[in-house]
Amino acid sequence: MFELTVRGHFDAAHFLRDYQGKCAQIHGHTWQVEAKIRGEKLGTAGMLIDFSLLKSKLKEITNRLDHILLNDFPHFSLVNPTAENISAYIYQEFADSLKENEVEVFAVTVWESTGAAATYFRHE
Ligand SMILES: Nc1nc2c(c(=O)[nH]1)N=C([C@H](O)[C@H](O)COP(=O)(O)OP(=O)(O)OP(=O)(O)O)CN2
Ligand SMILES: [Zn+2]
């Protein structure tokens, strides 16, 4: 089994509903995103899947979230734009974008700051 890792980032504002504390106020983060892909079969070039393809697909997703107020983004109108919910959103979108490829999106981690991150992965 092979595991590949690609990283991206986006800058966005958010505020947390149902939350007592400073994060209930609008504020921003540079969100770092890390996605892990797993698979067994290498192609003839010796690659599981091209890093450039993974990075461009991840960028297409992070670009949707870049320089916006996350609370205005349709997906986050019902669920709070926490690191947890953002990692689950990116996981699902990334997995959908790779469904034609013989790889599995294993996990997506979203770092809200250097000291705090949330990871989404599917429990077997
Ligand atoms: N489990 C989660 N907890 C919190 C989340 C989250 O997404 N998941 N988000 C927040 C806030 O967005 C907040 O911006 C981050 O809070 P906090 O780390 O307390 O604040 P700072 O980045 O300013 O860090 P300092 O250590 O206070 O400088 C809160 N919790
Ligand atoms: Zn925040």
From TrEMBL:
What family is this? Belongs to the PTPS family. QueD subfamily.
Keywords carried by this UniProt record: Lyase, Metal-binding, Queuosine biosynthesis, Zinc
Give the pathway annotation: Purine metabolism; 7-cyano-7-deazaguanine biosynthesis
Q: Domain of life here?
A: Bacteria
Classification via SUPFAM superfamilies: Tetrahydrobiopterin biosynthesis enzymes-like
Q: Where does Zn(2+) bind?
A: 14, 27, 29
Under the heading Gene3D superfamilies, the entry gives: 6-pyruvoyl tetrahydropterin synthase/QueD (3.30.479.10)
**UniProt GO molecular function:** 6-carboxytetrahydropterin synthase activity; metal ion binding
Cofactor(s) annotated in UniProt: Zn(2+)
Q: What's its EC?
A: 4.-.-.-
Annotated Pfam families: PTPS
Cofactor binding: number and manner: Binds 1 zinc ion per subunit.
Q: What is this protein called?
A: 6-carboxy-5,6,7,8-tetrahydropterin synthase
